[in-house]
Amino acid sequence: MKLESLETLYVEELRDIYNAENQLLKALPKMAKAASSPELKQAFEDHLEQTEEHVARLDEIFGKLDKKPTGKTCQAMKGLIEEGSEMMNHDGEEVVLDAGLIAAAQKVEHYEMASYGTVRTWAEMLGEDDAAELLQQTLDDEGETDKRLTELAEEIVNVEAAAGD
To answer: How many Cβ atoms sit within 10 Å of the Cβ of residue 20?
Structure first.
């Protein structure tokens, strides 16, 4: 695809994020199943529900743009999910593996925050105020998830993993 304008780039990046979110919809149930900490399992399940909302918001944006959301594979998310899969396939102490799952999940959250922040800014610049608002809502969700994962790590999982050393 030839990127001729900010609008073209904006749509292409929205497609990238749409694919990323759909990849995440498939990965989160596996991560929840792999987590041994009940709190971490719940965090993954809650984020799955949020991710469904994120996809619905993107569908709404694409509908208003009269564009198709498909056609792009997010290679970054593919790689991040692969890292998470590697963690799930390790043998070891459950709490240590949970700490690794949190690290993998936070990499995903930071990627999503960067992506949503970028397209939100472009939406604002392009006068797509409704889209910018929806993208900001998702950006806020991603930040809250990242904060929740940090709290789980610092208050429970990492503490328990360190106690085992």
So the answer is: 26
113 contact partners, CB below 8 Å, separation of at least 6: 139, 142, 143, 146
Q: Which run of H or of E encompasses 108?
A: helix 94-125
Q: Are 57 and 138 in contact (CB under 8 A)?
A: yes
CATH topology of domain 6-163: Ferritin (1.20.1260)
Q: Taking the model in full, what pTM does it have?
A: 0.93
pLDDT per position as a tens digit, 80-120: 999 999 988 888 889 999 999 999 999 999 999 999 999 99
Distance CA 129, CA 89 (A): 43
Percent of the chain at pLDDT > 90 equals 90
d(CA 89, CA 31): 11
